[in-house]
Design a protein that fits this description.
Order of helices and strands: HEHHEEEHEEEH
CATH architecture: Alpha-Beta Complex
Number of helices: 5
Number of strands: 7
Shape: globular
């Protein structure tokens, strides 16, 4: 069993979590995209004919994350397709589409703060259990490293739409609001609100 095998029911049974839809209040600011990001997304719009996961990853998701990386002076680092193997017995193993972790200049994943899942078949709901499992894995990873970090955030994306999640205590919160490329400053602002929180709370 790996992260992608989980359902919400299995997460509830195995980890005793509850789930709740809630306004995560991430729309506190707007952040203008760089010209490089605007150009990259325009290219993606003009030339992607098959909206595969790989194409979304390379031409939409990655440029957005790199733009945020530059705006935050490499406070975090990006892991793409890396394994987050935390507890094989409980199924907290497997590949993660993206992990944003505090940048400690290490090769191995240091302190994961945001896990990201690319939704299969453009269906956001299919990615929610996998993302929730990865958030649990990220929290356990941090605890094993002696870092108790609360909350852990997650995000599920189709490339065009983005839904944020938060693991706090035993509850997985899914944001009632979806963000999208049609309002890019709002999407970037939601990410920045999360990053600002960790800047304040992580030494």
């Amino acid at each position: 069993m790996t992260y992608s095998d989980f359902t919400i029911k299995k997460l509830k049974e195995q980890f005793g979590i509850t789930e709740q839809r809630k306004d995560l209040n991430l729309n506190q600011q707007k952040l203008e995209a760089s010209e490089l990001l605007k150009d990259a997304l325009k290219t993606a719009e003009d030339y992607i004919s098959v909206r595969s996961e790989k194409a979304r990853s390379e031409l939409i998701v990655t440029p957005i994350l790199i733009d945020l990386l530059k705006k935050n002076k490499a406070f975090f680092t990006i892991y793409s397709g890396d394994q987050l193997n935390v507890d094989k017995e409980r199924g907290l193993v497997g590949e993660c589409d993206f992990i944003l972790a505090k940048n400690l200049n290490t090769i191995e994943i240091s302190i994961p703060i945001i896990t990201m899942v690319e939704a299969k078949k453009h269906d956001m709901d299919l990615g929610i259990p996998q993302c929730a499992a990865q958030m649990i894995g990220a929290r356990l990873h941090n605890e094993k490293e002696g870092k108790k970090i609360e909350p852990i955030y997650g995000c599920v994306t189709t490339g065009d739409e983005w839904k944020f999640m938060k693991l706090e205590g035993n509850t997985i919160y899914s944001d009632k609001k979806k963000y999208g490329l049609l309002n890019l400053p709002e999407l970037l602002g939601a990410f920045q609100t999360i990053i600002d929180y960790y800047k304040e709370h992580l030494n």
